[in-house]
Queue: 2 jobs
Job 1
Amino acid sequence: MRETFIRCLNIEKFAFVYKNCNFLGLLYTNYINKTTNYMFRKFIALEWKAFFRSSAFASNMVLKVFMIIGAIYFTGMFLLLGFGSYHIIKDATDEDPLLLVNRYMIYYLVSDLLVRLFLQKIPIINIRPLLTLPIKRGTIVNFALAKTAISFFNVIHSFFFIPFSIILLVEGYDPLHVVFWHLGILSLIYVNNFLNILLNNKDGLFVGFIVFLSIAAGLQYYEVFDITEYTGIFFQGMYTTAYTFILPLAALVAVWISCFRYFRSHLYLDTGLSRKQKDVSTEDYTWLNRYGILGTFLKNDIKLIRRNKRSKTTVIMSVVFLFYGLFFFTGMLEMYDNSFMHMFAAIFITGGFLFTFGQFVPSWDSAYYPLMMSQNIQYREYISSKWWLIVIGTVASTLLASFYLYFGVNIYLMILAAGIYNIGVNSHLVLLGGAYIKTPIDLASSKQAFGDKKAFNVKTMLLSLPKMLIPMALYSIGQLIGNNWGVILVIIAGVAGFAFRNSVFSMIEKIYKTEKYKTLASYKQKN
Amino acid sequence: MIQVQNLKKAYNGVTVLNIENLEIPKGESFGLVGNNGAGKTTFFSLLLDLIEPSNGYITSNNIKVNESEAWKPFTSAFIDESFLIGYLTPEEYFYFIGELRGLNKADVDVLLAKHEDFFNGEILQRKKYLRDLSKGNQKKVGIIAALIGNPEVIILDEPFANLDPTTQFRLKKIIKELAEDPQVTILVSSHDLAHTIEVSNRIVALQHGEVVKDIKTSEETLKELEAFFAV
C-alpha cells in the first residue's frame, strides 16, 4: 500500500517536471514522431512472423499453392484484358472503348465490392498486446488500414487499368486527362477497399448488393431503365473534365478518415475488441430425448450449427449449392450440358451440407475435444449421431431440390438418385475423410482471420472429387446401356453403400482411436 | 484405486514426467503440488488418456487407461476450458454432461440446487453462453460439472486459480465433503500449498517430473513444503 502510494507520488512529480519543461517535452514529441516510422517497421516484422510461424502455415501449403496459382491466373487475365480490351471493343462495336468501359464501370465497381465482402479479410493485427505499450493509438490504426492497401484485391485492378491507360495514351487520348481518369478510378477502387472494412460484419448488405446488381442488370436487359446511361456520364466526366476526378479522391479521403475514426474510437477492450453479447435462452429440444444418447448428441449439434457463425455459413453454403444445378440444367453453358456433368451437379445439389459439414467431423468439436475424449462417450454413438445429422441435411436438400421438376422428370429422378447415393455412400466416405483432417475449427472467432465465410476451403473441395467421379461414371455407363439405367445404377450403388455401413463405422472408430493423441495435440494448437 | 507403473513421458528426448511407482488408494484425497512445468497437468492428462505415455502405464480400478475405455463411466475431470462447450448455456452444459452420465434433468437440477451457494448467482439463468462468462465463472461451471453423476474418481487441475476468495473457501468445503466419502477418490493439483494441504490428506510434490515428496498431511506439512519450495 505504502509502496504504491510512493510510486503514485513519483509519477505525479514526473508529470509536473515534464509539463514544466518545454524543452524536454519537445524532445519527447520529436522522439514519438521518429518512432512512428520505426513502429511501422516493427509491425511489419510482427506480421511477417505471424504469417510464417502460424501452425496453419505448414499444413495449409496445398491450399496456399492453389491460392497462388489462382492469383497468377487472375493477374494474367486482367493483364490480357488490360492490353486487349481496347482493340477488342473497337473491332466489335465501333464505339469509343473508353466510353463503353465507363458505361459499365458501375457494374465493375459494385461487383468488386461484392467480391471483397465475400473474400477480403478485414485487417486484424494482434492489437490487444499493443494497447498498453507506448505506441500511439493512431499509429496502430493507420498501420492496420495501410496494410489493406497492398491487398491482392486492390493490386489486381492495376493489372487492368495501367495497361488500359497505356493503350489509351498510345491511341492518342489526352495524356493529362487519362491521368485524371486513372487517378479517379484508382481512388474508387480504394474507396471500395475501405468501404469493405466499414461494412464488414453486416450480412444484409451482401444480399442487398446482389439484389441491386440483378435488378439493375435485369432492368437494363429488358430495356426498362438503363442505369449506365446516368453513371456513365460521371465516369466519362473524369476523363473529359479536369475536376470530376477530385470527387473520388475526396471520397477516398473521407472513407479513410471515417475508418480511422471508427477504429480509433473502438480500440478499447470493451468496445471494438470485444464480442457483442446478446441475451440467450436455454433450449431443451425435449422431442429429441426419445433417441437416447443419439438425441443428446443431435441436440448439441443443432446448437453447434445454430449458435456459431462458422457453422451457420455451412448451412448457407449448402443452400447456395442447391442452385448450383441451374448452371447445368438451363443449358446456359454448352460444355456442362451432358449427362456426365448433370450427375456432377446432382451430387452437389443434394450434397451441399454433406460436403461442407461432414468433411469437418470431428473438427467441429475441436475446441472441447479433451472433454469428448474423457467423458462417458462411445465412439460409435458419436459417429452415428454425426451420420444422422448429415443424412437429415441431405434429405432436406433433396426435398428442397424438388423445384428441379421444372426441368423435367428425368432431371428430377437423377437428383433423387444422387440424394440416395449421397446418403448411402458419400455420407460414409465423408466421415472417413474427416477422421484424417486435424485442422482445429475456431467456432468463436467468427469475425477474425480464419472465421466465417472467409474459411471456404479448397482442400475440402479436392477431397470431394472422388465422391463425385464414381456416380458420374456410373451414370454415364448406365446411359450407354439404356434409358433410365444411369439412374438405376446410381441408386443401386447408393443402396449397396448401406450394407457397408457397420464396417465403415468400425473403420472410422479405429482411426479415431489410433489418431486420438495426434488429433488432441493438433486441436490444441489454435491458429 | 489408481496405480502408476514406471510411467514416463518424454517430448523429443526430454523427460517431463517420470514416476516409478505411485499408488492412490480408494477414498483418498490426493493433492499434487509443484512449480510450473513440474508435470502436474501432464500427469492428469496421462491419467485421462489425453496424451500417450512414452513408457509404463496407469491403471484405474485395475483398468489400463490407455488400453480400455472402461474407466470413463466412473471418472470425471476438469482440466481447463477445453472441457467446456462454449456455445452452450451453463444449464445446457450441465444437462448434456448429465445425459452422458445417465442422469435426467431432475437429477442434475438437484445437484445444481445443492451448489447454488458456490455459483453465487452468477451462473444459472444469466442468459449467457459459456464462452461469454468470465474465467472464474467458467471454472465454477467446469468444477460442478465434474461432480455430475457420482463419479468415483474426480480430477481437478488448479481448481483454486482464478477464483475469488469467497469461492475458494466454498470450494474447499465441497472438496472436503467429497473427501469424506470413502467411495470417492479425489485428485487436486495446485500452486497454492496452503489450499492443497487444507483439502488433501496426502500430498505429493513434483519437481522436474519426479516425485520429490510424498507425505500424509499433518500440522507440519505446510512448514515442510514451504521449506522445500523456498529456494
Note: Chain A touches chain B through 34 residues (CB under 8 Å).
Job 2
Amino acid sequence: MTRVIRYIFNDILRTRFILFYTGFLLLSTFALFQLDSDFGKIVLSLLNIVLMVVPLVSVIFTTIHFFSSYEFIELMLAQPINRRVIFLSEYLAVASSLCMAYLIGVGVPFIMFGAGESVISLLVTGVFLTLVFVSLAFLSSVLTRDKSKAIGIALLFWFYFSLIYDGFVLWIIYSFSDYPLEKVTLTLIAFNPVDLARIIMLLQLDISALMGYTGAFYKNFFGSNMGILFSSGILFLWAIIPIYIALRIFNKKDL
Amino acid sequence: MKKVQFFLITIILSALSLEGKTIRVGPSESVTQIKQAIVMAQPGDTILVRAGIYREGNIILQKSIVLIGEGYPVLDGENEYETLTVHAQHAVIKGLKFINTGTGSIEDKAAIKILDSENLRILNNQFENTFFGIYLSNSSHIWIENNELKSEAEAEHQIGNGIHLWKCHHITINENKIKGHRDGIYFEFVTNSLITNNYSEGNMRYGLHFMFSHNDEYRDNTFINNGAGVAVMYTKGVKMINNHFIHNWGSSSYGLLLKDISDSFVMGNEFVENSVGVHAEGSSRIVFKENEFIRNGYAFKLQASCDDNVIERNNFQQNTFDLVTNGSLVLNRIESNYWDRYEGYDLNRDQVGDVPYRPISMYGMIVERMPTAVLLWRSFLVFLLDRAEKAIPVITPENLKDNLPAMKAYDFNK
Amino acid sequence: MILINDLCKKFGKLTVLDQVSLNLGSGKSYALVGPNGSGKTTLIKSVLGMVRPSSGLIQFNGKDIANEWKYREQIGYMPQIGRYPENMRIGELVDMMKNIRKEVKTVDEELIDAFKLYKIYDKRMHTLSGGTRQKVSASLAFLFHSPVLILDEPTAGLDPVSVEILKEKILHERRMGKLIIITSHILSDLDELSTEMIYIFEGKVQYNNSIEALKEETHETRLNKAVTTLIKQKELLNSITEQL
C-alpha cells in the first residue's frame, strides 16, 4: 500500500497544483499578518478562507485528480493489487497532500509570528474539513463516469453545505422562533461539517461574547469534554462515512 | 479705642478656639486607640493617627472633627466588623487605610458607612478587601476624592459595591479608583451630583450603576473591563460627557446600558471594544453627539422602544455591527455620522456623502428578532444576505438611514 | 486454467455478454474474434476483474475470482488502448511496475531491449505516439513471466518491424506452454499466433474450436477467409431466423 501511495503522491506533487495551493495559503496568511496585528482578527479572517476555500479546493482538486488518475487506477487494477488498497491509497495520498499544503500554508506563518490556542483549533478544523470534503469528492467521483458530472456533484456538495443548508437552518429558526431551539440547532449543526467547524472556531475566539445566550449554551457544550468528543467524533464520521460508501461503490464498479 | 481693642481680642480669641486642638493616636503615643481619641475630641479638633495597625472593631464617629492618617495607618476590620461608621456634619476623613471588613448579605458592612450626614470630605483613603468601600445613605454635600478601592472577589454575591450611594444629593466623586467590587460606583436616588475623573476597572457587575438618580453629571471617567459595563436606568436629566467605556466584553456586557432614560446628553465619549457599545431601550430625548465607537461588537443597539433621540456627528469605525434595532418603526434622528462602511460618493465635495447610508445589517436585525440565528454568524449565507439587503432593503426599516453621512471621520481631539 | 461459466454482463439494458461459457486451458493460444462492440474487451476485463459480471462464474485455477486479486500475479495484460499516468516517464513507469510486483525477482526485459525503449526512458507518457505506447504496453505485459498472457489488439498501430518482434515474442511464449488470449482485427496475424478460435457476436460465443477445424469446416486455407465465410454463414442464418 505504501508503494502505491508513494506513486500517487509523487504524481500529485508533479502537477504543481498543491504547490500553488500551499503558496496561495502562505501568501494570504502572510498578507493578513501584514494588514492586521490583532491575532484574533487574523484567525477570524483565516476562518473565512478555511470555511470557503478549503472545502472548495478539496472537492475540485480531488475530482479532477481522480479522473486524471483513471489510467493509473486501471493500470493498477490489472496488477495483483486489491481494489480496496488502490482506492484507499488514492484517498490517503490526496487527503494527506491537501492537508500538508494547508498545514504548511497556514501553520508556517503562525509558527514564525507566534501561535495561540485558537490557531491549533484552526489547523485541526481545517484538516478535518479537508478530510471530509476529499471524502465527499471521492464519493461523487465514483457515482458517475463523467468527469464534468462528478465535478458538478462535488460542487453541489460544497454549495449545499456552505449555503443551502444554512438557508434551511435559518428557515427552521424562523419558523419555530417561539420555541427553545438550542438543542435542535445543535443537532442540525452536527449534520453540516462546515457549520460545525465554524461554530467550534467561533467559540474559540473571544468574539463568541457577541453570540449571547445561544453562544453561551454552545460554549458550555463544546467547551466540555463531551462536546469536544462529540464534535471531533461527528467530523470524523463525516470523513469516514462518505469514503466508506465510495469504497463500496468502487468495489463493484466496472472500469 | 477701648471698644476697638475689645473687639480685636474677641476676634482673636474666637479664632483660636475655632482652630481646635490636635489629638495624636499611635502605638507610641499616650492615646493608642482611635475610639479613645474620638471620645476625647471636641468639635473642631483634629485626630492625627500615626502609622500602625488598629483593630478596634466598629469605630463610630458622630462629631465634627478631622480624622487624618499619617503614613496610612491601617484600620483592620478582622473580616468581621464594619470599620468606621459616620453620622456627623462637617467632618473630614483622610489618609487612612481600611482593610478586611466583615462581609454578609444581611447587613451591608462597609469600610466607611456614612449615615444621615452632611458636609463631609473623604479624601486620599485606601481600601483593601472591603465588602462595601464607601457607603452613603441619606446624606448630602459630600466630597469623595482620590480614594483607592481594591478588592478581589470571585463572585458577585461575595462582595458589595465600591462607592455606594443611596438617597443622597449634592455629592462629588472625583478621581477615585475602584477595582474588583460588585458595582464600582452605585447610585440609587441620588440627585444633583457630579462624578468626575474616576477609574473603574474589573468590577464584577457594573463599573457604574445608577437608578432613579436625576440631574447628575458624569465626566471624564474611565470604565474598563467591568463584568457588564455601565448601566443607567430609570433616570432623567443625565449628562455623560467625555467618558471612556473600554473593553466591557462578555455575553451580557455593555459599554453603556440605557434603560428608561430621558432628556439626557451623551457626548464626547469613547466606546472601544465593548460587546455592545450603547444599548438603549425605552429611552427618549437623548442626544448622542460626537462619540467614538471603535471596534465594538454592536456599536449601537437602539431598541424600537426609543423615540426622539438624536444620533449625530459620531464616528463608527471597525465595529462588527454598527447599529441594530428590533422593530421597523424608527422615531429617532440619525444624521451626519461617520460610518467606515459607507461606500457612497461625494460629487460636490462638501464632505457629505450624496447617497444615504443604511447602518443596519440585515443579519443584525434577524439576530435581534431570533437570537438563535446567531449560529449562522460568519457563514456564507449571512454574507450574501447582507449584501443583497444593502442593494434592495426588504426587512430593514426603510427610514432608518443617515441622510448626511460624513465622508471622513471627525477629529474630536482638537 | 480459466473456466468461464454462464457469464452475463449487462450495462443497464444493454446485454454485452450473454451466457458465455469457455474453458481456456494452458498451453493453448486463443484468438478472440468478433466485430466491434461484440464484447471481447468486456470478456477480457471480466477475467481481469476490472468488470464485475452481472451473473455467472469465472474460475482461475479452480478458484472463483470474485473479490480476489492475488491470481492476477499470473496474468500479463496488454490493454487495447494503453492508458498510463501522463506525467510519468517510461523509465519511471517500468520501475514502478517492477516495484509494485517486487516479489518477481527476475524480469523479462527482452521486449524493452528489442523495442529499444531504454533509449527513450526519460520521455513522458503524454509525448508518446500510439505505436510507442503499444510497445510500452507490450513490454509491461511480458515483464513478469506470467503464465497467462492476455493481449488486446497487440499489433494495432505498430510498425511492421515491431509487429514482427512482438509476434516472435508471442510465439516464443506459446512454445513455453503459456496460455495466450489474443484479440485482433488483423486475422492474418492470428493465423500465425493462435491455435484456437473463439468467435463472439453480440455477446454470445458463436464458435469455439481449433483453427484447424475451422479451416476444414469452411474449406478455406487462410484464417481471414475462413472467418469471413463463417460470419457470412452466421449472417445468413440470422436473416433467415429474423424473417421467420
Note: The longest strand of chain B covers residues 163-174.
